[in-house]
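ok so I'm stuck.
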Amino acid sequence: MRSWTSLFVALSASWWLFQTFRLARAIAGLPRVADMPRETRPAWPRLSLVVPARNESTHLGEAVRTRLAEGYPELEVVVVDDRSDDDTGAIADRLAASDRRVTVVHVDALPDGWLGKVHAMQRGLDRASGDWVLFSDADIHLAPGTLERVIAWAEREGVDHVAALPSMTARRSLEPTLVGFFRMLTTLVPLTAVADPAAKTAAGSGAFNLVRRSALDRSPGLEWLKMEIADDFALGVMLKRSGARQAMVVGGEFVRLEFYPSFAVFQRSLERTGANESAPAVIAVIAVLVLLELGWLAGFTQPGPARWLALATFAVAASTQYAASRWLSMPRWPAVLPGASIVPLGWVLVRSAVLAWRRGGVLWRGTFYPTAVVRAGIRLGRRQPKIGSSRSS
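replied:
not stuck anymore, here's the structure
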């Protein structure tokens, strides 16, 4: 029994050292919006901000107003009311009536073979006239000067697609879950490789996916993503495989996301991921992550080296979580509970997989999608034919 405990502690310690290394590389290698100078130009390229929104009456009004007040001189905002049954459509119409830069598209029906959000993005893109297109969720707030900083930097660096990691605000009870999730994201995915044209690693962000329209036109287009649940990341995959130059940046205080208002809403939102993989596979992966994230705790039940290793791992884990939170402009206090976020996050993912198994599919944005249909449309983690320059599904 003691040997198994020592093994668990050693594996967990190695895992946290790996995360520390990956995080240090990300901090050193990813550009920050705060470090991008705000330029003065006689003319700016036109930018279309596409905002898909379904039942977003709580966030939409204030979030869109921050983008309109952001200060970009050549901005149009296309709000897509995606079959909402709350006041989202009315709020969007009032925004359009008060500011000529806002256009509203009302979607009344979802065509077969499309996920609602991706279809809403496509409808917004159809109305967009910009040289650049920013796909951004309805609960995102931008600080003044964000778009001028990022577009000037992208044009100077020759980048076609910029994905930004947002900072987040959330209820205190949700903060450990969200900061743990983003810490694992920045360490599991080698984000510094996103900017390397020779690397296969690609990424996207639902909070902030800024795309040069000409690069999007060289890709198969959003129809290629029409049944991809993780459309934000998959957009990055599609663009990079189509030859677009890509970069991941840290939005920090310039790109802010209002996280889900409650754990129940967060739980329902992630139900859409349940059919991606089988329930046994999800359970196995979560079990391994629990061992890696929290296995060091077992060392405190043993005397001698195992206990000392557990104590050292706690110090490394807490420091890593604190550094990640500070870097991403997120709450720092969850660092006192390093690894604890895997418990609620794991529960949500396992629950989603089990529900999808029982239902035979997922219910998302008011539409049911059978498991076979969901998996046939997945673009992430599946072997796909090489993307050419022509548009096709």
